[in-house]
């Protein structure tokens, strides 16, 4: 399902399957400059940490082209313009660390003596490399994570950490797909609806139904009963940022699922590529939590469900403490507690 993020060389634009309208219709959104890329990121045209990183990489190329067209080709003109556009892009969303990771990786490849044409050429190649890397890493992650799924398991997941949240295959759903591809064809999935944006009901169920993997959607507040009845054997979720100590921020409600999983003895796993681990963030309390528009809570689609004038909370993520996580599934293996040590080893540090 890597077709949901694609780059059109002929048109010079990034094309995104607009996730706001799934599963009812499949529309495309075109990013042609920095503003349209930021809009796509902020309005959830595209979402999911790895997919945000891929989008940001192409967004840097669009920013370079825009800087050249706006400021002119002279070095003293386009460089400050591009620097400002990259800063705006990096700050588009605060929680998903892959956004800043991608922009900083592109910046690191910006040679001080590079002309604009050379920069654009090298950045487009690097953006495509980041895109292809994520496809490979998610496939590896899925193969690694398949080991934690037993044939016959029912796996609960929260939000959408599938192909739509990455370049291909997915993280949490990559683990499920990895188990399925390994011949474990008796697995089942419970997709929590994931209020308020309903990524589980709209996106996870859509992906798995297309793949023919059995899935049922559950109300978020049914998790406790489903676990109590023994209907859940594993929980696998994605992450938007994992701190140096293993605390993991995922879509709001994940913390509650993790607490319930511990209470009922259900192993709780986080699946994410190394690019989602942020060694510079010490713990979950230091992860910035995005506070989104109240309308996502006050309305379901066009239907208003909250009285006028009533305030709401719409914090988009919550951090799950490392103590509740049985393992962090990455492309280089499953990290185990103590996470401070295993994360350092995964990055090649002693």
Give the topology, please.
Blueprint: E1 5-8, E2 13-17, E3 28-31, H1 34-42, H2 49-71, H3 75-90, H4 97-108, H5 116-145, E4 154-158, H6 172-181, E5 188-192, H7 199-211, E6 215-218, H8 223-228, E7 234-237, E8 241-243, E9 248-251, H9 254-264, E10 268-271, E11 277-278, H10 295-298, E12 299-300, E13 303-304, E14 317-320, E15 327-330, E16 333-335, H11 339-346
Parallel strand pairs: 4-5, 4-7, 5-6, 7-10, 8-11, 10-15
Antiparallel strand pairs: 1-2, 2-3, 8-9, 9-14, 12-13, 15-16
Helix pairs in contact: 1-2, 1-3, 2-3, 2-4, 2-5, 5-6
Along the chain, the helix and strand elements come as EEEHHHHHEHEHEHEEEHEEHEEEEEH
Distance separating the two termini: 37 Å
Q: Please give the radius of gyration in angstroms.
A: 20 Å
What is the helical fraction, as a range of percent? 40-55%
Reported CATH architecture of the largest domain: 3-Layer(aba) Sandwich
Overview of the molecule:
The protein is of the alpha/beta class. The protein folds into two domains: 2-138, translation initiation factor eif-2b, domain 1 (Four Helix Bundle (Hemerythrin (Met), subunit A)); 144-346, 3-Layer(aba) Sandwich (Rossmann fold). It has eleven helices and 16 strands. The chain has helices spanning 34-42, 49-71, 75-90, 97-108, 116-145, 172-181, 199-211, 223-228, 254-264, 295-298, 339-346; strands spanning 5-8, 13-17, 28-31, 154-158, 188-192, 215-218, 234-237, 241-243, 248-251, 268-271, 277-278, 299-300, 303-304, 317-320, 327-330, 333-335. The strands form four sheets. The protein has a seven-stranded mixed sheet, with helices on both faces. The chain has a four-stranded mixed sheet with strand order 11-8-9-14, with helices on one face. A three-stranded antiparallel sheet has the order 1-2-3. Helix 1 (34-42) runs antiparallel to helix 2 (49-71) and helix 1 runs parallel beside helix 3. The longest helix is centred in the middle third of the chain and has 30 residues, at 116-145. It starts with a strand and ends with a helix.
């Amino acid at each position: 399902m890597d077709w949901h993020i694609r780059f059109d060389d002929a048109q010079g634009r990034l094309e995104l399957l607009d996730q706001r309208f799934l599963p009812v219709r499949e529309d495309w959104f075109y990013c042609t400059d920095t503003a349209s890329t930021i809009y796509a990121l902020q309005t959830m045209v595209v979402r999911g940490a790895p997919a945000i990183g891929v989008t940001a990489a192409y967004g840097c190329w669009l920013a370079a082209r825009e800087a050249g067209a706006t400021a002119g080709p002279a070095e003293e003109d386009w460089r400050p313009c591009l620097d400002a556009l990259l800063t705006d892009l990096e700050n588009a969303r605060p929680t998903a660390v892959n956004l800043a990771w991608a922009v900083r990786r592109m910046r690191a490849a910006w040679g001080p003596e590079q002309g604009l044409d050379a920069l654009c050429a090298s950045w487009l190649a690097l953006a495509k490399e980041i895109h292809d890397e994520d496809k490979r890493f998610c496939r590896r992650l899925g193969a690694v994570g398949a080991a934690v799924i037993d044939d016959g398991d029912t796996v609960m997941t929260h939000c959408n950490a599938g192909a739509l949240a990455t370049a291909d295959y997915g993280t949490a759903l990559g683990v499920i797909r990895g188990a399925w591809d390994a011949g474990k064809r008796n697995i089942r999935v419970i997709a929590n609806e994931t209020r308020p944006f309903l990524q589980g009901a709209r996106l996870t169920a859509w992906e798995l139904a297309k793949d023919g993997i059995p899935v049922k959607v559950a109300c978020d507040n049914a998790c406790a009963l489903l676990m109590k009845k023994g209907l859940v054997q594993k929980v696998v979720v994605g992450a938007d940022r994992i701190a140096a100590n293993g605390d993991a921020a995922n879509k709001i409600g994940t913390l509650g699922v993790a607490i319930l999983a511990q209470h009922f003895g259900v192993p709780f796993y986080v699946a994410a590529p190394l690019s989602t681990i942020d060694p510079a963030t010490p713990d979950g309390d230091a992860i910035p939590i995005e506070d989104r528009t109240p309308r996502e809570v006050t309305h379901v689609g066009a239907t208003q469900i909250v009285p006028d004038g009533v305030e709401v909370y719409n914090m988009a993520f919550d951090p799950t403490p490392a103590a509740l996580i049985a393992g962090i599934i990455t492309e280089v293996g499953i990290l185990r507690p103590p996470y401070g040590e295993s994360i350092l080893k995964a990055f090649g540090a002693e």
